[in-house]
Design brief:
Length: about 280
């Protein structure tokens, strides 16, 4: 470890609170960090002090990627729980680095050409550390967001599963449509009545809209057409009631399919892929 790096670390650790206050004064008025404008000093400054206090540990680690992941994953989790947006969490960290170097320069940590050469090497190491930090913070934020989405969506997560519909769901849908056709035939042809039994049809209609999205509306159309044809063949009563039911099948199906697609667009970016 070079003499310059030693001095930089020592100055940072010794004056961590002072540097943190300078950082806070900057981040509190910076237009790129508006959320920090509302955070009090006693809540914000410890963030910077913690970073400066652990700078040696991360900077000098033989495995900087692992050290950065350990420290900055915790940093990301703390900022996430404080409702700090990802871009502000990263930019505030960049400002911590900037103020650390500005303070070192003000304290004349490097005074010779050799110091400047060593400073360049230290800067490269610091940039590498912050590259690891950006990756770790982004990864942790994604993990936390995904977890919160899963918790809030709960059982509705099945709607956002995406991808091809499994064969067993297609088999279930086929069986439900066939059962609906049998029920329709039984009531119309055998019992000779149009008594309200079609509430059972909403089971395949809802599942089709959830599983197949807008393509599932075809199931509602199919059931609606079937009930109208069956009514025409087997019953002599007016068609208006079943016509209304057929229209409602389609309306309900479109509504559910639209909601399912909307939920899918919101949830899918935060769900783990099967290969993850």
């Amino acid at each position: 470890m070079s003499a310059f790096t030693t001095r930089l670390i020592e100055v940072t650790e010794l004056h961590a609170k002072t540097i943190a206050k300078q950082w806070y004064n900057d981040v509190k008025k910076n237009p790129k960090t508006p959320v920090y404008h509302k955070i009090t000093e006693d809540r914000a400054i410890p963030q910077a002090i913690e970073f400066y206090s652990h700078f040696r540990e991360v900077f000098m680690s033989d495995k900087p990627s692992e050290a950065a992941k350990r420290f900055f994953s915790k940093y990301a989790e703390d900022r996430y729980r404080e409702a700090i947006p990802l871009h502000e969490a990263i930019y505030s960290l960049v400002m911590m680095r900037r103020h650390m170097w500005l303070f070192a320069e003000f304290q004349a940590v490097w005074t010779s050409a050799v110091d400047y050469q060593q400073a360049s090497a230290g800067l490269n190491r610091t940039i590498l550390m912050f590259d690891y930090a950006t990756y770790a913070i982004t990864e942790k934020y994604q993990e936390l967001i995904r977890h919160d989405v899963d918790m809030k969506v709960g059982a509705l997560g099945i709607i956002a599963s995406g991808g091809p519909v499994p064969a067993y769901k297609t088999a279930i849908m086929t069986a439900l449509v066939f059962a609906a056709a049998l029920v329709t035939y039984y009531y119309h042809a055998v019992l000779n009545t149009d008594v309200i039994f079609t509430h059972l049809f909403y089971i395949p209609i809802a599942l089709a809209a959830i599983w197949y999205r807008r393509k599932g509306v075809l199931v509602a159309v199919l059931l609606g057409v079937f009930i109208l044809i069956s009514h025409t063949i087997f019953l002599k009563t007016p068609l208006i009631d079943d016509l209304i039911r057929a229209v409602m099948f389609i309306i309900i199906s479109v509504i559910i399919a639209t909601l399912a697609e909307g939920l899918c667009k919101v949830v899918m970016p935060f769900q783990k892929s099967e290969s993850a």
